[in-house]
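Cast an eye over this sequence plus tokens and explain the fold to me:
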Amino acid sequence: MAGRRGRYYPAITPDVLLRAYSIGLFPMADSADDPEIFWVEPEVRGILPLDAFHASRSLRKAMKQSSLDIRVNTAFEAVMAGCAQEADDRPSTWINSTIRQLYTDLHRMGHAHSVEAFEGDELVGGLYGVSLGAAFFGESMFSRRTNASKICLVHLVERLNARAFRLLDTQFTTEHLKTFGAVDVAKDDYLKLLRAAIESPHLPFSGED
């Protein structure tokens, strides 16, 4: 993990967390069982350009055939719990109890959001992140059905574009995210994009569709 990292104890507040996002920092934990968190400031940042987002033809076809019900901000804590669960492709997680409480508080303040995939009454996938100005910071996603989290990502991007958001921060790039168009940018370039997005006019993430 490239970037500066500093140990921080759980006295952090939601307001401090928002300030950290505004200057390019975000928190993580070593494990779900470790109560401590630390700041991460990557030298190379992952972003998903909203004007160059790409969903494959097969995914678009799957979306048309899908019976999933996509909702927004109806099950935030359940989405965080799903993201924190261990899975075959994720034997450990950095989402500890401190992080879960902080982001739940941000959600109540209107700064943390979830996109959810339901099959009937069952939550089968989702993602969550933080909004600040016209910037959205993606945190984590999970899926219990084929393509559930991917479909949530497509809906997230459509929502951000409809509301004139300028930046979708993925923190780091992965091979999975690169298939959607994610790229790496140097820290200084990222900070310029971040400042412009925070100051840019936009519609609220939680506004009516």
